[in-house]
């Protein structure tokens, strides 16, 4: 049986092309499972998974929990708020205490880039990165690729524009790695202040003109302005951002050819996307959420084979 080259999922940067193919192909099988009347398989019946979230989440947290339950794993959920982290316990002590209760896998979201990498070298459990600060969000990139492939087939040669706050986005970096490993052509687009200078060195195109990006791409993956991570003003006002970089349904309808609109959520309606764009036939935003469960089932199932 084919296996992953790693026992943790810390970032897309560490995955091989074969790993990505294997995860996406396995997810296709799990998508069939979750569309059956009985959505559950016994694959992880003997495994206990802790979802350890030090940062807010709606989609990722629920999606992992559903994926785990549909694989018949035992699941415990931990939030930093309301925990003994507030009393000064370290990350490693917190996780080692959770592992002492016979937990096999840790799914972790943390505001510090590298936190899951730090843990993975110090604990015996498999670690899955559910988003580490502004660094990587590997399962989001995998579910984004899965969703693009459902619409467009093989991504080699396809043009993907990632539009918005690239500087503060973990989704952008994971998507760039994931798409490039599949042979896609990637552009990042946003205000100069929200595109890090090192982007061009990653081999992506850079644009500051949203209409140019939309005209160029097959897929527009639009990112949220992450005000909670911005210590200084990167643009004069949300109104001005929306005026120059916001995407409306009319802009999408006026393009010469079909375009797929994506967003990892949560959406700031009226800022990066108008409601009529987010809810338009161009949008596959809720398909992304549906696919997230199948992709996370695939990741957990494959990592469990490495045990
Ligand atoms: N896309 C994403 O990571 O959403 P949440 O922050 O709600 O998990």
TrEMBL record:
Q: What pathway does the annotation place this protein in?
A: Pyrimidine metabolism; UMP biosynthesis via de novo pathway; (S)-dihydroorotate from bicarbonate: step 2/3
Q: Which residues bind carbamoyl phosphate?
A: 59-60, 109, 137, 140, 265-266
Q: Main EC class of this protein?
A: transferase
| One MF term in the entry's GO annotations | aspartate carbamoyltransferase activity
Would the keyword Phosphoprotein turn up in this protein's UniProt record?
no
PANTHER family found in the cross-reference section: ASPARTATE CARBAMOYLTRANSFERASE (PTHR45753:SF6), ORNITHINE CARBAMOYLTRANSFERASE, MITOCHONDRIAL (PTHR45753)
Annotated protein name in UniProt = Aspartate carbamoyltransferase
- List the lineage, top down: Bacteria, Pseudomonadati, Bacteroidota, Cytophagia, Cytophagales
Gene (UniProt): pyrB
């Amino acid at each position: 049986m084919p296996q992953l080259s790693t026992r943790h999922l810390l970032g897309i940067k560490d995955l091989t092309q074969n790993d990505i193919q294997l995860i996406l192909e396995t997810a296709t099988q799990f998508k069939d499972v979750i569309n059956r009347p009985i959505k559950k398989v016994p694959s992880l019946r003997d495994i206990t998974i802790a979802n350890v979230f030090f940062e807010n989440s709606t989609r990722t947290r629920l999606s992992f929990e559903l994926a785990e339950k549909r694989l018949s794993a035992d699941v415990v959920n931990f939030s930093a708020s309301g925990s003994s982290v507030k009393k000064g316990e370290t990350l490693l002590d917190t996780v080692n205490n959770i592992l002492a209760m016979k937990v096999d896998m840790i799914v972790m979201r943390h505001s510090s880039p590298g936190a899951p990498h730090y843990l993975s070298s110090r604990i015996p459990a498999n670690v899955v990165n559910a988003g580490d600060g502004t660094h990587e969000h590997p399962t989001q990139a995998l579910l984004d690729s899965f969703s693009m492939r459902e619409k467009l087939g093989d991504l080699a040669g396809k043009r993907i524009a990632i539009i918005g706050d690239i500087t503060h986005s973990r989704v952008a970096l994971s998507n760039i790695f994931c798409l490039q490993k599949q042979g896609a052509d990637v552009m990042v687009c946003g205000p100069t202040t929200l595109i890090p200078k090192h982007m061009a060195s990653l081999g992506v195109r850079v644009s500051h003109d949203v209409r140019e990006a939309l005209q160029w791409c097959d897929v527009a993956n639009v990112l949220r302005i992450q005000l909670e991570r911005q210590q200084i003003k990167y643009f004069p006002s949300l109104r001005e951002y929306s005026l120059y970089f916001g995407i409306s349904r009319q802009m999408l309808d006026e393009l010469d050819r079909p375009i797929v609109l994506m967003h990892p959520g949560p959406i700031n309606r009226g800022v990066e996307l108008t409601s009529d764009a987010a809810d338009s036939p161009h949008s596959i935003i809720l398909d992304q959420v549906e696919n997230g469960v199948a992709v996370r089932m695939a990741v957990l199932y494959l990592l469990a084979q490495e045990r």
